[in-house]
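Exercise 3.2. Students should predict the tertiary structure of the chain below and write it as structure tokens, then compare their answer with the key that follows.

Predict this chain's 3D structure.
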Amino acid sequence: MTETTQLVLPNYISDGMIIQQQKPIVLSGKDKASIPVTVEFIDENVSTETDAHGQWSVILSARPAGGPYTIHISGSSDITIEDVLIGEVWLIGGQSNMELPINRTYDEFKEEIDSAHYPNIRQFHLEMDPVFNEPKAFLKQGQWKEAVQENIQDFSSLGFFYAKKLHEELNVPVGIIHTAVGGTPIEAWMSEETLLSLGNYTDEIAYWKDSKTVEKEIEKDNLRSQIWYDDLNGNDKGLKDEPKWYEEQVDTSDWKGLTIPVMFKDTELAEFCGAVWFRKTFEITEDDLESQTYRLRLGSLINGDETFLNGKKVGETGYRYPPRKYVIEKDDLKVGENTLVIRLSIDAANGGFIPTFPYQLEMDTHSLSLEGEWLYKVGYQKDVIDPMLFLHYKPAALYKGMLHPLKEINFKGFLFYQGESNTGRPEGYSDLMKLMVEDWRSLFKDPLLPFYFVQLANYIDPAVETDDHGWAVLRNEQDQARFTIDYSEMVPAYDCGISYELHPHDKKTLAHRLAAVALNRDYKSGEAFENLEVKSIEVAKDNVTLTVKGLKGDLRSSENMPEFDVLSGDEWVLINDLTFNRSTISLVLPEHIGSDSLTAVRYAWRNDPKGYVYDDATHLPLLPFIKDI
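Answer key:
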């Protein structure tokens, strides 16, 4: 253990912190060994002494919501913590859909975000920090930030909308401790002890405990990536030729045509890996130049892009998922013909301009479509890059590095949005989630902490478009988990997604669903949250009738037909004839299907369900299911 020669505090004990109301307040830190430390807070004055390693900790009385207050700590030196609030504190965790910042969902909520000024809503964001040996004991990163214009774009979108709803309903400060990290499987958030007890992770955990192994693997990974991209950039004819292919005056007589947007799997670029260049010319009028703002919307591209307008680079993104939204200046455009060039770097042979997203030049009052015929030419073709090393995906790594150093914080509860990275092996996920929640509650020494989580949204990989039902199975595992985990609830999301977008933008709806659960169950406010589920199944000669429970209004169908299947023999048969009553759904069987041959029925059992049934009063969708008859 590293000893210190001065008074230091974990970063979450800092200016602007929010403390959970009505729970004991634990404050701790490090100083010289065996010296007195005094903590003053409101009307309390508590003294202790550091141990032989310089550790100290005090417990202060539980307090109601309020502030701002000041904490004064005296040891070998003095530290004053200013602007301390007491209110509600929630830990948010998971992967990228919880991490997704407001700047990625801004277009959907522009007016609300532009007017947001909530100094009593605050986020403490931990950056990714995997640890492989002893769990981290002392937090040296992160800072509290207020939900004001200076900071709000970096807030977790779901976390902000959840905190805002609680703040508005409860009129108390709300703090969010943000630990989510994109791409992480659930195993990264579980304790080593729990994973070792399962027997499947022993070798992997042991392998990464050797710090020299970690350094060697990181060096090898960095070198592999550097070699691949150096080769790509050094041999790309578009960067070597004169003129460069991003310039305006380029001979395009040998360039080919391609209609954009399109995934390359069905084109001559199928399985292509390397650098490929795209060009499109478009006309700008004098009226267009009256606009005060301009933005290129280039949908979502696979993988990295460099984008040029009239020979000038106007934007670039290094990887697949962020939507391309590049602000450009009026001087970048000209009356008459303009040339847009995209250099697309594809590292895994699954490239494309993902359909269903906007490809346009946006101006104040109108947009100019950039869809249609483009020209393209290959700059350099090469082999697929080797898979990257993601250390933060490793078992227990983030539990040790990001959760463990928070262990002395008192929370009101947990919010969790994760599962996408476990869809490759979805079976058994509910058991892992149950064990993970036990780990978290044990770490924070409270077996009653509520755990509310988001079921996976709808999604299908546009580069593949095959449905292996992995997402459907994992949704079902999540559904099972809410019955095995005490003080838990799941909210659906498959009605909020976008088929080809891994990150649904409507985080507000999901946040409000989670808030509805918490407000009723933990704050005794508002109506009880109840998911829509099938209560009973009745089979008649020519139909199957499903009765739904949890309704506050009437059942309705989305514009797209909900997908119900019945199992006849060993074949799943899609039902195209549905009728709705207030609380029942009748599946009219095709003439060739006898009711006596049916053994099961399922609903929305797709990675990307196209339609859904919902309650017209709450707009909650019926939970996906698979049930025996």
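Discussion points: The chain is about 20% helix and 30% strand. The first strand starts at residue 18 and ends at 20.
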